[in-house]
Amino acid sequence: MKTITLLLTFFAFSFISCEKIDKLTQFTINDQFETTIKAGLATLAPTDMETPPVTSIAEKELTMNNSRIDMIESVKLEELKMVIFDPTGRTFDFLKDIEIFIAADGLPEKKIASANNLADDVTNTIRLTTENVELEQYLKKGTYTIRMRVTTDKIINQDIKVRSTAKFFVDAKVLGL
User: Fold this and answer.
1) Quick check: helix, strand or coil at residue 118?
2) How far apart are CA 145 and CA 91, in angstroms?
3) What are phi and psi of 61, to 5 degrees?
4) What are the residues facing 165 on neighbouring strands?
5) Is the model's pTM score more than 0.90?
6) Of the four listed, 64, 105, 107, 110, which is most buried by Cβ atoms within 10 Å?
7) Is 67 helix (H, G, I), strand (E, B) or coil?
């Protein structure tokens, strides 16, 4: 009876320890990028816009979490939030649909988020629906580009500047474990 109790206790502690160690290797990275939606845009046909190359803060975050870029096991986009910051008071009421794609040198483009049939009463902030795609190789590159495909249903009379925050869930090995 003592043997069974000891074995059950051992397995319980092993399971709890593995879960705690796994949590130590998981964290989020918040990359930001900006784009401008040009005035005069009003079409029910999709229009593409690219951001300047985005330099990920992944390497810095990995160092702070006692890991390295080559130790990333998995990366998934948890959240993509877009906020209009200029002009102030402007909303996304002109936007009908939006799709976001990621690309990096030597890697194929992947759709990572979208929002469809946006209502006219939307505010200056939108959260897109994220795709469940693996993005490990894109963050390992250090720099990536974002392409937006937007469909508008209203005329835009001035340029609109948008800041986007991409929240990536990272699972990496921790040095020494």
Assistant:
1) coil
2) 25
3) -65, -40
4) 32, 81
5) no
6) 110
7) coil
